[in-house]
Structure formats: C-alpha cells, structure tokens
C-alpha cells in the first residue's frame, strides 16, 4: 500500500515538474484542450507500466545487492536514470524514433521522469528502511 502511495506522489511530482519546466523554460502553459490531456494520458500509462515492470524490479534487485537500503543514494539515482525508458516509449509510440529523444517535448518528459525516479527511489528506500526498523 505504501509503495502505491509512493507511485501516486511520484507521478504527481513528475507532472508538476513538467508543468513548471514548460512555464519557466519555454514560457508556455499546458492547455486543457489537448496538451494537458495528452501529457496526463501518456505519462500515466508509461509510468504505470514502467513502475511495475522496471522501477520496482530494479530497485528490489538493488536492495538485494546492497543487502538493504543503506546507503540510500543509489535508489533515487538509479530510478532517475531509468527515466529515459518511459520517455523513449512515449516517443516511439507517438510515431517517432530514438532520435526524437532530442526534441523539446522529450526534454520535458525527461524532466518529468527524472523527478518521478527521484521520488520513487527515495520513497522506495524510505518504505523499506521503515520495514527493516520494524522487524
């Protein structure tokens, strides 16, 4: 249950990072008519798949390798680095190729999934640190 909460908070933080970056770097806002719906749809679908199929398995393997969640820094670092995968999936599913990872839109998704990874990694480590302290 706590990892589900971490996932939701992570996705919200990522969408907020996307919106803030769009505003501060490009001076634009998401329009609810199309842009916001597309960003919310594609980021939620990609994140749901990647959270279950990539983030959790990699972070669990890292936890086993380190025999716990200390030090904590490898977890957010690893999860943030994995942010390239959902960005690539979004690019490919929208008719692009891997070279489209250099586009402005892809940079926004890289920011989003970098922040998502940061929050997922910290949240994962905290959840499992709390689990270890209870046993």
Outline the structure in words.
By secondary structure, the protein is an all-alpha fold. Helix content is 79%, strand content 0%. The chain has five helices and no strands. It has helices at 2-26, 35-66, 74-81, 84-93, 104-134. α2 packs across α5. The longest helix has 32 residues, at 35-66. It is elongated, with a radius of gyration of 15 Å.
Short description:
This protein is mainly α and 135 residues long. The protein has helices at 2-26, 35-66, 74-81, 84-93, 104-134.
Which features does this protein show?
0% strand; mainly alpha; 79% helix; elongated; 135 residues
Give the topology.
Layout: H1 2-26, H2 35-66, H3 74-81, H4 84-93, H5 104-134
The tally of helices reads 5
Low-confidence parts lasting 5 or more residues at pLDDT below 50? none
Main sheet: strands, sense, barrel: none
Mean pLDDT: 87
Helical fraction: over 70%
Rg on CA atoms, Å? 15 Å
The end-to-end span amounts to: 18 Å
Strand content: under 5%
Shape: elongated
**Strand pairing plus helix content: what structural class?**
mainly alpha
The counted number of beta strands is 0
What's the SSE pattern?
Answer: HHHHH
Assembly type of the shown chains? single chain
């Amino acid at each position: 249950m706590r990892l589900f909460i971490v996932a939701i908070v992570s996705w919200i933080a990522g969408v907020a990072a996307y919106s803030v970056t769009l505003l501060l770097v490009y001076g634009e806002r998401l329009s609810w008519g199309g842009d916001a719906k597309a960003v919310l749809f594609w980021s939620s679908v990609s994140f749901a798949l990647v959270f279950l199929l990539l983030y959790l398995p990699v972070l669990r393997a890292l936890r086993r390798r380190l025999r716990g969640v200390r030090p904590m820094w490898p977890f957010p670092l690893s999860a943030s680095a994995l942010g390239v995968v959902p960005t690539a999936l979004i690019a490919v599913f929208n008719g692009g190729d891997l070279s489209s990872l250099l586009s402005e839109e892809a940079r926004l998704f890289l920011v989003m999934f970098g922040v998502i990874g940061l929050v997922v990694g910290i949240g994962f480590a905290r959840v499992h640190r709390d689990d270890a302290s209870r046993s």
